[in-house]
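In these records, each integer encodes one residue's backbone shape. Here is one protein:

___
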Amino acid sequence: MGLRAFLAKRVVYSVFLLLLVIMVDFFLFILMPGDPTIFLAPIDPAGGILSPEERKEREEILKRVWGYGDPYYVQLMKYMRNLLTWTFGKSILYKTDVTKAMFWRIPYTLLLIGGSTIISIIIGVILGVMAVQKRGGIFDSGAVVTSLVFNALPSFWIGMVFLLIFYINLGWFPNAGAFPREWALKGFPTPVTITNSVSLDGLRLVLTLDSGQFIKLIGGYLRHLFLPMATLVIVTAGGWLIFTRASMLEVLGEDYVLTAKAKGLTERGVMFKHVLKNASLPIVTSIALSFGFVLGGALITEAVFTYPGLGQMTFQAIMYRDYSILMAFFYVMSICVIIANIIADLLYGVLDPRIRYG
């Protein structure tokens, strides 16, 4: 089967898979006990406490407004139509379009989760190769034990320890947010200024770069990014080390490895050019899936550091049963995972010529 036929087959398969995911997500949230009217009904603009009859009446009104009173099949049809047309509706929590609420948070999540994922993969794979090179030694045993310990520790506990050390005791890093609070009041640093210049050729725009303001802007974001990113790297890097080590040990005794050593290649050359390359297929699958879940964010870590990403928004949506955000969130994440799987399948043929698209 050629590449085009393979892609066409995977696209058709992915469409049916996406429809199945949409239906599962719908029933998963709709059949959960409770609904958003629990939080919205007690609101009384006139003040005071609502009676049980008044509260029940208001709940019924809210259910009709938000569509929760419709039959399940009607809600499902509306739900599928809205998701497939990328119409996510209004957020009950933020009182605005879900698309707008998610859009400005995506860069923060990509920066935090994407950056920590890349750093974790690089550190974990390199240390995994070094552990295989020195297998059975002190470095190998220490790396495996340390990885297992940090991989088992809760991320929120590590985050709180970091806050205790680096924020409360040392005061090196801030405790919350993605940028300094005073920027919201006094304005953000402006590294680039645009001015008008009049010359013989007419009016021209002149761009001026202020290096001091640029460093201040980048430094402010990096200081707020360091602790949550360090937390995620410490928790996840050990998993990549163990996974890389296990994958390489499976192919270490193959004939082509022994042949490469017999040709006089260095230990490092054998590990990276032969062992790691042939053991990379399961690693590529895990990497693709991890990037597929990037938009999911780290719910607990972002909640601990009050980092304004998709993870924190999802955590708040769960607390208030904001189904509009939750359904949109899982829909977008499902698409990312499906695309990541297709990319992983394509990379298989690049890494291993013996694999054919079929």
In short: The longest strand covers residues 192-199. The CA atoms of residues 189 and 217 lie 6 Å apart. The chain has 16 helices and two strands.
